[in-house]
C-alpha cells in the first residue's frame, strides 16, 4: 500500500470540509510524515502500544495497520519494566551501550521521537553483525536512563562511554570485563 493512500486513513475530516487549501496541505504533510514513521516503526517490529506512544495515533488505527503489514495481530504487552533481561548477558549490555551512544547523538537533531528511534535502530542493526536487541529492547535503553535506573559511565580501562545500573560498583565496561575474564592468568 502506498504512503499517500494510507495517509487518507488518518485524516480526521474529508478534504471538502477542511477550512482552506493551505491548512489542508499542512495537515496532509503532517499526516503523511506520521504515516511514514508509523509504517517504518511497524516494519521494524515495534508493537502497536509503542507505536501509539511514539506517534500519538489511535490504537485501533495502528493495530489495523500492523495486521495489514504483518498479516497477524500485534503481540500484546507493554514496554519491559525491568533491566533483568539486559543484565543476564554481558553482550546485551555491550550492545545496549552502543544503542545509548547512538541515541545520545541522534536525539540532538530536530527529529521526532519516532524518527530518532528509527534512526537508532537502523544504525544499530547496520553496525552489529548479530543484533541481540529487538526494537522494543532498543527503545527501552534510553528509558532506563531517563528513569535513573541506569547511568552513563566512562570505563576506567578503555575510556569508552557505557551504561550500567546506578548502584553498580564496577568501573569497567562489559567489553573490558569480558576481555580480562578471557585473558585472566594467560
Ligand atoms: Zn572498557
Properties at a glance:
186 residues, mainly alpha, 2 domains, two-stranded antiparallel ribbon, 9 helices, elongated, binds zinc ion
How does this structure look, described?
- The chain is mainly alpha-helical and 186 residues long.
- The protein has helices at 3-10, 21-43, 48-55, 59-70, 84-87, 90-106, 113-127, 135-146, 174-183, and strands at residues 150-154, 161-165.
- α2 (21-43) packs across α4 (59-70) and α6 (90-106) packs across α7.
- The chain contains nine helices and two strands, in the order ααααααααββα.
- The longest helix is centred in the N-terminal third of the chain and has 23 residues, at 21-43.
- 27% of the residues are buried.
- It has a two-stranded antiparallel sheet with strand order 1-2.
- The chain has two domains: 3-70, no CATH class; 84-183, no CATH class.
- Bound molecules: zinc ion.
- Zinc ion binds at residues 155, 157-158, 160, 172-173, 175-176.
Short description:
Helices cover about 60% and strands about 5% of the residues.
Biggest sheet architecture: 2 strands, antiparallel
Give the helix proportion (percent range): 55-70%
Whole-number mean pLDDT: 86
Radius of gyration: 20 Å
Number of contiguous helices: 9
What gap, in angstroms, lies between the N and C termini? 58 Å
Any low-confidence stretches, pLDDT <50, length ≥5?
11-16
Number of domains: 2
